[in-house]
Amino acid sequence: MPLGELAVRHGCELQGDPALEVDHVATLRAAGPGALAFLANPAYRSQLPGTRATAVVLAPAAAGDCPCACLVSNDPYAAYARIAAELYPPPAATPGVAPGASIGPGSEVPASAAIGPGAVLGAGVRLGERVVIGPHCVLGDGVNVGDDTRLVGSTTVYSGVTIGARCIVHAGCVIGSDGFGFARGRDGRYTKVPQVGGVRIGDDVEVGANTTIDRGALDDTVIGDGVKLDNQIQVGHNVVIGAHTVIAAQTGIAGSTTIGARCVIGGQVGIAGHISIADDVMVGGGASVTGTIRRAGVYGGGPTPADDLPRWRRNMARFGQLDRLAKRVRALERGGPGSDTDEGDGAG
């Protein structure tokens, strides 16, 4: 693709020959002729002068050090992502129903859709234009899938699930399975609570491999527009995730929790049930979110060793007092207010 065309389409300032062409992407260190590289992390700035790439996507502050053509953007990583998507479009699917696929009665499958071998569609399934249902996917009765959405393969979508347009659902996902709802009787036995809600997934959502999204107990589980879920995430019943939130792998979200818009949740985060997280919250990897977060900001933490529950609770309460206790200790060390140090005793 000519650099001049890419610059216009992606709002970049081109420094170099607009007729130069790129046909693949590479790192600054490994790039050669025809390669497009990018620089977004300052840690790699030292590799820029020696790159052999045809062009580099970078920020204005780095343009003076670039030895080749460059596409200058105030947001170089996002610009690079859009250009790379043009260079590496998803594989084209052949419309039609492959041998061995099964289509239930009353299902609507447009001619532009592609149904892979071994896929099973229940009754009343509705697919949008250019939908791709990969091999061995199973769609329950009444599932709706929006235009240009792709289910990669071996994914199970239970009845009562709606998936929006331009979504990607990777292999091994389970969407709409029963939430973990059981009523404990006085005799200690558990009775299953029927999970009668559904799952609603918005547009432009990506769901990573082997991620599970439970259906709602009464109301629906809701995944907002533009949400990106990594691999092996558990989303409990009646969870609501706001638009454009991203969640890294192995995070578990207990039921009836609401996560706001534009949040960033790190890997292996545990989020308790029946709480809320405000918009624009960042949670560091490995943290445990046990209570509502009402204000935007960056929150950290990490796992603590398992302990006797009453003692663990006492220690967690003390943990919240550490800042105040540290101030008291400093005051005591200085012999200031709150100190019980006697004058003239030689204490420092």
How many helical elements? 4
For the record, the CATH class of the largest domain is Mainly Beta
Radius of gyration of CA atoms, rounded to a whole number: 27 Å
- Average pLDDT score: 93
Q: What's the structural domain tally?
A: 2
Q: Which CATH-level-2 architecture of the largest domain?
A: 3 Solenoid
Tell me the span between the first and last alpha carbons.
72 Å
Mind describing the biggest β-sheet?
11 strands, parallel
Quaternary structure of the protein: single chain
Helix- and strand-based class?
alpha/beta
Poorly predicted residue ranges: 341-348
How many strands appear in the DSSP assignment? 36
- The CATH topology of the largest domain: UDP N-Acetylglucosamine Acyltransferase, domain 1
Strand order of the largest sheet: 6-8-11-14-17-22-25-28-31-34-36
Observed structural traits:
alpha/beta, 348 residues, Udp-n-acetylmuramoylalanyl-d-glutamate--2,6- Diaminopimelate Ligase, Chain: A, domain 1, 4 helices, UDP N-Acetylglucosamine Acyltransferase, domain 1, disordered C terminus, ten-stranded parallel sheet, 2 domains, eleven-stranded parallel sheet
